[in-house]
Amino acid sequence: MGPGFVLSLVLALAPEQGFGAESSMQVSKEILADPAYAFCHDPQYPLTPQEAQWCPVLAQTQQEELKRCPAFVQACDARRAVLKGAGRLSSRAVEDEGQAQERAGGGGPSRGAEDRADEDEDEFELPVLGGLAEVLFWLVIGLALVMLVVAIVRNLAQSRAVEPEPEEPGDSQSALDPDAAQAAAAARAMETDVERLLSMARDCAQRGAFADAVDFSHAALLRRLDHEGLIRLHASRTNGEYVRELRGNASLVDPVRDALRRVDRAQFGPQGATASVFDDIHARVVAIVKTVGPLVLLVTTVLGMGIACDTGADPVFPWSTSPSGNDAVLELLRREGVSVSYRTEPLTALDGDQAYLDPTLVMLDDAAASEEEWRALRGWVNGGGTLIIAGGQLPPWLDVSYATLEVPVATADSATAAQAEDAPAEPEPDAEPEPDAEPEPEPDPELDAEPDYDDLVWEELDEPPVVLTGILPMGRSLVIEGAVDEIGVDTAGNTTFASFSRNAGRVEVFADGRLFTNAALVFELNAETIVVTMQNAGGAVEFVDGWVGRGVDTPADTIRNSHLTAAVVQLLLLILALYLWRGRQFGRGRDPISKGRRAFSQHAVAMGRQYEKARAASFAARLFSGWVLERLRNRFSSAAGAGLLGLSQEVARRSGRDETEVMRLLLAAHGAIESVATPGGTAEDLTLVRDLGRLMREIGETT
Amino acid sequence: MNPAEIGARCDQIKAEVGRVLLGQEEVVEHALVAILARGHVLIEGVPGLGKTLLVRVLSHVLGCTHKRIQFTPDLMPSDVTGGNVFNSREDRFEFLPGPVFTQLLLADEINRAPAKTQSALLEAMQESSVTVDGKTRPLPRPFFVMATQNPVESQGTYPLPEAQLDRFMLKIGVSHPSTEVEKQILRNHLEGFDPSALERSQLQTVVDDAALVAMQSGLQGIGFTEEMLDYITDIVGRTRLHRSVLLGASPRGTIALAAASRARAAVMGREFVIPDDVKALAPAVLRHRLILQPDAEFEGLSTDLCVEQILGEAQVPKTAA
């Protein structure tokens, strides 16, 4: 084993815990034997460049040790993968289609097409879904489960209900007073929720009102079909019309027709509705109602999934079971009796929560805390909590930093070369920490040589530490500036672990978070180290990743985080503008405007407005005067003759007006007829129209 | 005869008629409805659509006698009803029955005869009897009149008066068959079908006149709920309130709608009337009983459109909406 690959971990309390090393080894072996950890079983597993850093370590490992993860070494020769998404919730796929075809064709070095085919037959895997389709898929599954549970509970409730009513001719509708029947009809018309209608039907049936129960079941069926857009429900439409409307849907038309025929018989037949009739109808309605929605939803979902599915069928590997994931570590700890979980509460909730000191917090390498969260963590640690930093962001209040060691090249060959030529070096203890700076290479130390403890900052420790070894790729070391309780070094003398006391609590820092990944468990000693570390910490363990604290408390925060604030504000402004423009009416449901025929008066008014727009008062006065004189002559010509004098006398007699005044009006009307109409008109024209209209109304004419 | 048996017989009749008369299923069903309801049918359609063939086939399948009167401007009432003729050998007048004395009567182009002749059918259609020279003679039972009129040629015609129209239970519009049906008609003719020789078609007589009368009597067992009566009266009442209708349907129209609905329920083999029955027959029952406002007619509104509007507004009983 080459230099720099061995981590010496100082765990002074390890012997006291008496952990079972044999047990951890065996458990970790069993865990990695699970096919879910494909990197241990698939020689073509696509490794990320970061994961490929394990390859040099693996190349130096004896085959006997690698039996628990035999394919990992071979996977080092596979193509590198690219990540879809941002890690923890994402999965990975191979780089290109050619690689996928190669894999599908059984081109792997150790496994043939037959092996893969057998595996495909044995394992059922869901298709690859896009984000929306995946959400929709699980939503459908969830809804189906809920509906199943509801149906079971409902059936159980029904079975516990009272025994069926004995059959009676007719039903107890007659027992209902007319008001109750009207109320039921109104409720049926108003209620649009199918489940509530079905529930009302059952309630009515339990009361013995089978006619109402049938009506409610009928309404539920039609409402469901209407909601699905299969029919257009209207008060004037008959059941036969609904059935004809369903002709295009072969799977529904027959059951709906049968159900509606029975409804017709119950509603209009001589026997009326009875308990058995209702049960029959209700069962049919429920069967249809429960079928229609899921059917439409299923079709929609399948279509959506078909669109969203990755038809290339490239294998996708979940992040959690990849070499970079943590599932195996969690499983190992659980099997060793450690209560372990991912933290969901924000870190700021720790502030002042002195009662919540039991869990050990492990901040994984992708965890990032804000200043406020670090303050909370500091308070929590000072109060007695145990915090483990697994290669991630360091607390600003801790005198420690990272120094980068040279990382071997990812391929096995280059890794071998790097192993032969390069060696990591610990930076000068007094030097300023420069996380991004490349450390100076140092000559290769002997693999089995003891570290040069004299040069290390922990040389002042009272007693020699108990050293446990773990194996990791070369990565980072720690630069410690202040007091430290315990430290650990690798064989090259790089400080890779440090433990700090903070009042009643403790902070442990690992330079490399890969100790807590699935890949680390390939080596037995890593499993031991993890278990011992957690058992020493005591209590439950909570892993903190990059998602902790990312949730929001209010919908407003969600909108802000999703950058929808501007859109929402615009929408609100639009609503406000509509409100200012139309008032409250714009938000109210209104009946559609009926397209009735216009009354004649409306046509006349519309024509008058057209005249007004055209400023054609003189034309209007001329036409109206002509109509008035013609109308008066038709009415009074037998009594008054055709002349204006006789006409004015007769009109004056009937209207009670002065004869001279009437004569003046008729003369003006006559003059308007005889005159040449000019565009524009005058106020006198309108006055004449009004006066003539008033005169006609006085003698009983409608204008 | 119960409704189920009536329905079964009607299915047989429709199937048998359908063997010869293609593409007129609705007309056949309406004719059956009118026969069962003891009503009469006015068919409006251009010549050549199989109206005469319908009567002949129906009479054959129903086992009834049939006659045809071609109405012309010079047709006299006695040409319809018959009259007393002096028998010099017996030195007395004896009654010579007219063509109305039959069970199925086809009054072809009824609007070509003057009102006097048209009215000769009034008593026959309403009372199923004929009065000549003060003596009333009953007509054979069942008695069914199928009158036709041509909607296209209006010159030299005498439109039926409202009183006469009201006597017809249904007014059916016959339209041209579809291309497929017409092709099948053509194929049948090319294969030797002769409308004047129906016996070659081996038509079965499904019922006889006695059975037909029993079927008519069986309609009494078909009931209405209160809601259905409300629905029928609501529809007819709306014809009197419609803004485009000058004169709505009379109570005789209400009765006709109920009777026709009941007959349709029987044809369907049901012992109760449902809204579908009423709605299916309302246009045929009401379209000739409405008189439109002049301005509505001027705007091109038809009675069919009015009835459609009314049916679109009347609330169906037991509706879920």
Write a short abstract of this structure:
Chain A has helices spanning 14-17, 21-32, 54-59, 71-75, 97-104, 113-122, 131-160, 178-190, 194-207, 210-227, 239-245, 250-268, 275-308, 327-335, 371-382, 412-421, 524-537, 555-561, 565-582, 600-613, 617-640, 644-655, 659-674, 683-698, and strands at residues 6-10, 82-84, 91-93, 316-318, 340-342, 360-363, 386-390, 400-404, 467-471, 476-480, 486-489, 495-502, 505-510, 541-544.
Write out key terms for the chains shown.
heterodimer; A: 703 residues; alpha/beta; Rossmann fold; 5 domains; three-stranded antiparallel sheet; 24 helices; 47% helix; B: 321 residues; Helicase, Ruva Protein, domain 3; 2 domains; five-stranded parallel sheet; two-stranded antiparallel sheet; 11 strands; 15% strand; globular
Can you give a write-up of this model?
The complex is a heterodimer of chains A (703) and B (321). With 703 residues, chain A is of the alpha/beta class. Chain A folds into five domains: 32-127, no CATH class; 139-308, no CATH class; 327-544, Rossmann fold; 555-587; 600-698, no CATH class. Helix content of chain A is 47%, strand content 9%. Chain A has helices at residues 14-17, 21-32, 54-59, 71-75, 97-104, 113-122, 131-160, 178-190, 194-207, 210-227, 239-245, 250-268, 275-308, 327-335, 371-382, 412-421, 524-537, 555-561, 565-582, 600-613, 617-640, 644-655, 659-674, 683-698, and strands spanning 6-10, 82-84, 91-93, 316-318, 340-342, 360-363, 386-390, 400-404, 467-471, 476-480, 486-489, 495-502, 505-510, 541-544. In chain A, the strands form four sheets. A seven-stranded mixed beta sheet of chain A has the order 5-14-6-7-13-12-11. In chain A, strands 2-3-4 form a three-stranded antiparallel beta sheet, with no helix packed on it. In chain A, helix 15 links the parallel strand 6 and strand 7. In chain A, helix 10 (210-227) packs antiparallel against helix 12 (250-268) and helix 10 (210-227) packs parallel to helix 13. Chain A is elongated and about 135 Å long. Chain B folds into two domains: 3-206, Rossmann fold, CATH 3.40.50; 222-313, Helicase, Ruva Protein, domain 3 (Orthogonal Bundle), CATH 1.10.8. Helices cover 46% and strands 15% of the residues of chain B. Chain B contains 14 helices and eleven strands. Chain B has a five-stranded parallel beta sheet with strand order 2-5-8-1-9. Chain B is globular.
